[in-house]
Specification:
5 helices, Alpha-Beta Plaits, homodimer, 10 strands, alpha+beta
Chain lengths: ~250, ~250
């Protein structure tokens, strides 16, 4: 009998070539499946995640699942995995779930956060965990701009030009900026995010914060459906996959 | 004419084999002197620091000085150094000083801080910046213990057995623990610190926090002058050289 295990996983993306397995590269999936293979006496065990993350992107609440014939309790799984995973991956929780659960297809919504360090001084301790943007910013204008992403829109202007998915309509439930001294944290909850979407939104909102564009540009950009008109892709190190929602109950709506 | 420049320097110690130059190793001094050599057309320029730090130990406020024939302003020095230093070293300030100033010999006191992350869960984002100690702790007992280090004592029990310095009497002006949720920060200001002294003090106080020893043990340990009786050396990643004081004015006494 196999059991399906669901894990909430945090990782520091700094030293990974992203989430997904790539030959010859150190990836989160590769490290995780390596541990599972050892635990299953050399048999391959595939994991499925809620979605990929790019090189340098972090996760506080990535969710993965896998099927296993081993009869360990969730607590034993957590201990065994944490004992063998490298120290830049941590399993925060393990639950047994049923075979209808899928880390990717059962997801109802996701939360991403993006940290920007705005102090004039470079901070060596934050360099892998925040984007550094040492310019005077109009946070009010940024908040106004960020609010305009809420609702259902075609996000063609705010995803990588390489995106192959045809349907670029997504719904953003929550979009806000928390300021704590020189640290700005962008928070987005939505039913789905396209490739580079959060990073392009942040890159564009930072241009608004610098006064290069007015907040109302967001509406025009959404309507234009042209990636070339939006701002630059903000760097990977500020981005965190924060949480994946599998039911509507816990939605911060 | 040469000028003496004083710099306050922060570094993330994670990827350094300590402060001091060692052949074939990446060190803070080595990186810094490499930049100065390029700026001085291949001529060696030595830097002097307030003291060394070990592999993995961080600095928020290390102080160094060097002599230079170049006529850059302090602001120009700061820009030029930060542009060329690797991203795990940052120059926080530069001042021109007179030739009687010496980063090490003019120091009146130093402040060290030590971060302990006490949550049950491993935090991948703090692994290089805090020691992880997931045990229930009696913070009140620890505070009592830490207070007993204040004053002038022979610290033989609290320095590496390899210490060659004969005079192990030092004065601690301030010793306290700041708690912020699961994060404990030890803060020590003293007129000097012996090799591994802060890390052995922290290792011993954590044993007291776990109830393995009573706070009053500190007095007995100080009197015993025997390193073998104190606790273990806490790991490098929690330790920060926080500030170096060159005058009595700014002392937090």
């Amino acid at each position: 009998m196999t059991r399906r295990m669901k894990c909430v996983v945090a990782y520091d993306g700094t030293q990974f070539s992203g989430y997904q397995v790539q030959p010859g590269k150190r990836t989160v999936q590769g490290e995780f499946e390596g541990v599972l293979k050892r635990m299953h006496k050399g048999n391959d065990v595939r994991i499925a995640a809620s979605g990929r993350t790019d090189a340098g992107v972090h996760a506080y609440g990535q969710v993965i699942h896998f099927d296993t014939p081993l009869s360990l309790s969730p607590e034993q799984w957590k201990k065994a995995l944490n004992a063998q995973l490298p120290d830049d991956i941590a399993v925060r929780s393990v639950d047994e779930t049923d075979s209808t659960f899928h880390a990717r297809f059962s997801a109802k919504a996701k939360e991403y956060r993006y940290n920007v360090w705005t102090a004039a001084e470079r901070d060596v301790f934050r360099r892998h965990y925040c984007a550094w943007y040492p310019y005077p910013l109009h946070v009010e204008a940024m908040n106004e701009a960020v609010g305009l992403f809420k609702g259902t829109h075609d996000f063609t202007s705010f995803c990588s030009a390489k995106t192959v998915i045809e349907d670029r309509v997504r719904t953003i439930y929550q979009a806000e900026i928390e300021a704590d001294g020189p640290m700005l944290q962008f928070r987005f909850v939505g039913n789905g995010f396209l490739y580079n979407m959060v990073r392009i939104i942040v890159g564009t909102v930072l241009e608004i914060g610098q006064g290069k564009r007015p907040p109302a540009d967001i509406e025009a950009l959404l309507a234009a459906k042209d990636r070339r008109l939006a701002g630059p892709t903000a760097p990977a190190e500020g981005l965190y996959l924060w949480r994946v929602y599998y039911d509507h109950e816990n939605f911060p709506l």
